Amino acid sequence: MFETLFQMETLHRIFLNTILVSIPEEFYLVMFTYILMGEFDSWKDENCKKLFYPWDYGRVFVPAVTAALVSNILRYTGVKMIIITAVSFLTVFVLIVLYGDILKNGAALIWIVKAFGFLLLAFLILIIIEVLYIPIVLYATGKEITEINNDIFLNFAISIPGKVIQYLILVYLVARKRTFLRANIFIPIQKNKMLSKLAIVMLLTNSILIYILGKTISYQRVLSNIPSGLRIVVILGICLFPILNISAFLSGIYYMENKQALKQNKLSKELYNIADEINKYTEIKDKSILNWKINEFSNSISNLSQEVNYKK
Question: 177: left (phi > 0), else alpha (psi -120 to 50), else beta?
Fold first, then answer.
């Protein structure tokens, strides 16, 4: 298939599909990752006058444009879609890491794992969006996915709803990211290696599963022989599965973190009360009273110590 790569018609298709369909999609993946990484927190500053500074253009558009171009070149040379998706994903990830300029930093590994996890999350959301509406469009119009892919402008038109949802998500993240971080959902995952690995495996497993099921539904039309109502239920069930298991995972972490925070606050208040009581009795000259209070403080601190050790 490489002999057709340099034909004018093929080059024209690669160019149009890259510009109209692929770059907006890759741009969403890059920006989603950067926003959750905190790379554009300056947008919340009232004094911020620009969305992008000169140094931002390279780190945003080079990964997006390169991945879009590579994916379209591979597509028009007959490479399987699953390989194209993997190569495109890795291209974005590698270029984000290279432009992050953190390889010599002591915390480079943590930064890289975070970037990979957030990029996986962006990819999973992208697949869920596509699985939600593209099969419905296919079954409603009676068209095959190959027909849509071969018609660049039809492909572009059908991709518009997905792009709108993706960019609304970006806007929402910019507006609400600080609230997200205050919820302490991601911090325990970042600090705990076991939770980090579990989160990556969960995102990767869900992404692969939804990708395979989505392609099976779209390309092989496995739901074409069942009633339309049941078809929608199955599609929604497939999309809800990763949402529910990831939500359960994050909710469990959020619950445990809040529970631990409440315990720490309780212990902190008790220690503060003991310190306050000690200050009150520092001026008492009666040794019997002092000894009595010292024993009381000692017992209180001992009880707190045992409580802390028990909770560990």
Answer: alpha
Give me 67's structure tokens: 């991945």
User: Which of 96, 100, 118 has its CA nearest to residue 37?
Assistant: 118
> Rounded to an integer, what distance in angstroms lies between the CA atom of residue 23 and that of residue 31?
12
CA-based nearest residue to 146, from 78, 88, 234, 70 = 78
Buried b (16+ CB within 10 A) or exposed e, 229-244: eebeebbeebbeebee
pLDDT value of residue 304: 59
Is residue 46 scored above 70 in pLDDT? no
Distance CA 72, CA 88 (A): 9
189's CB contacts (< 8 A; 6+ apart) are 117, 195, 196, 199, 253
pLDDT, tens digit, for every residue of 134-155?
A: 887 777 677 777 788 888 888 8
Reading the block at residue 44, the tokens are: 């919340």
- Name the helix (H) or strand (E) containing 251: helix 228-281
Distances (CA, A) of 298 to 271, 301, 304: 12, 5, 10
Query: Using 50, 70 and 90 to split pLDDT, how confident is the model at 310?
Result: very low
The pair of structure tokens assigned to 163 is 């792009």
- Reduce the DSSP state of residue 128 to 3 states and report it: helix
How many of the other CB atoms lie within 10 Å of CB of 256? 11
Res. 33: pLDDT tops 90: yes
